[in-house]
Amino acid sequence: MSAGPVSERRAASRPTPTSSHKRAGPGRDALLAWGFLGPSVVIFALFLVYPLGRTVYLSMHGNDIIGQPNRFVGLSHFAEMASPEFGRILFTTLVFTLGVVVPGVVGALVVVLLMEGVLRGQKFLRGAFALPFAFSVASASVIFAVFYSPGNSVLNGILYRMGLDQVPWLTSQEMALWSVALTTVWMNLGYGVLVLAAGIGSIPKEVNEAARIDGATGPRLAWDVTVPMLGPQLFFLIVISTINALQSFGQIHILTAGGPVGSTTTLVYSIYQDAFAYGTSDFGRASAQALVLLVVVLVCTLVQFGVIERKVHYS
């Protein structure tokens, strides 16, 4: 029996798209797409677009004693930044960022490479070095405040036992910034160790075995094989560490409050001082500095993507 009549009957019974269906199809798809995207768009607009627009608006307005904008001042807040005081704040921010990113990334890399040479207890060491990541900024800052305390400092006690002079960790203009940077490096070390340890675990064993057959062992194996293979993880850590360092606030506020004599006042802490500290409520100047911080973060990120990422090998 031929299948022709059956298929013809099925085709005849199948509903044919009408012109109204053809018109409603793309509309329904677009409506469905906006239904899924709508919540994300609303959240994006509320928590990113509106705050950014409000910051731009405030940066061009003066305000009264309670922070309400009451007059248009144009770019005068930006012009006020062309001063030696603001230049010192930018320089402090740059030094603090370098003092956090470089030792933080290098320290995590050294720790992970050393752990690779340990045959037993790698999981315990990995957990121990990752432990600082579990501390909040406030907890870590209080711990280091005890270490740095001028009255009963743990670190100065160790130096005294060794016959060395005591160090004014938080009260010296020369030492305070480095002391806060050391605290930040310790806080970020655990995250760096976790990221790089995961990267080492993803390197194929055949790569290391082939390198050993070619005579690469120890530091040469680490430098010529392991470190290049960790390029994506190192690049990610550099970008994230830079952004986090530029936005650091809690440890500065708890340990030094921007002092002594402004030696630890970074750009973020200067924004806080103008907007909220001492009852100033100078939201216009603070907003202008916030926009400068946004530009600094964008420029640093673009430079890192343009320079460092070109040397990263993605396998």
UniProtKB/TrEMBL annotation:
Entry-linked PANTHER family: ABC TRANSPORTER PERMEASE PROTEIN, INNER MEMBRANE ABC TRANSPORTER PERMEASE PROTEIN YCJO
Topology relative to the membrane: Multi-pass membrane protein
Domain of life of the native organism: Bacteria
Domain ABC transmembrane type-1 as annotated: residue spans: 89-304
Family per similarity comment: Belongs to the binding-protein-dependent transport system permease family.
PROSITE patterns linked to this entry: ABC_TM1 (PS50928)
Record's protein name: Sugar ABC transporter permease
UniProt key word Translocase: no
Spans traversing the lipid bilayer: 31-50, 89-115, 127-148, 175-200, 221-243, 288-308
Compartments where found: Cell membrane
Location of region: Disordered: 1-24
Keywords: Cell membrane, Membrane, Transmembrane, Transmembrane helix, Transport
